[in-house]
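> forwarded from #structure-qc
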């Protein structure tokens, strides 16, 4: 079954679509690939990424128009991981822009891989892994 399969996207529900798109596009460098409004279902989908959906896994942000309360993130979801160069510089620049970096860059416990975590506007954790 795995032959030809590919991970297409990860979906996150967001409370404020414009604020979330600003975070991912302005601060993390993603591009808005497509956005569709669904008035009959009262929701909007925005697909963001670092390349075309045809050959890259992307992030789908779902905004339910009638939602007024923040989503409960639960304890099952972990994080999204993004490979970056110069993790220290990236985190320093994000902090200067007011982005929360709850786990500063440094080697992961029990290993040598340098990681950091930032928090998006809805509280989702984004892991940076230095490449």
């Amino acid at each position: 079954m795995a032959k030809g399969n590919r991970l297409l996207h990860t979906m996150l529900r967001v409370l404020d679509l414009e604020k979330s798109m600003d975070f991912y596009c302005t601060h993390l460098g993603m591009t808005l690939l497509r956005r569709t409004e669904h008035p009959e279902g009262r929701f909007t989908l925005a697909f963001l990424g670092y390349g075309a959906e045809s050959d890259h896994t992307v992030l789908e942000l779902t905004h339910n128009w009638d939602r007024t309360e923040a989503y409960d993130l639960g304890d099952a979801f972990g994080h999204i991981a993004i490979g970056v160069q110069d993790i220290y510089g990236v985190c320093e620049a994000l902090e200067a822009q007011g982005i929360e970096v709850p786990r500063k860059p440094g080697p992961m416990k029990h290993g040598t891989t340098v990681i950091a975590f930032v928090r998006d506007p809805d509280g989702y954790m984004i892991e940076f892994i230095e490449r």
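QC bot note: The longest strand covers residues 31-38. The two ends are 31 Å apart (CA to CA).
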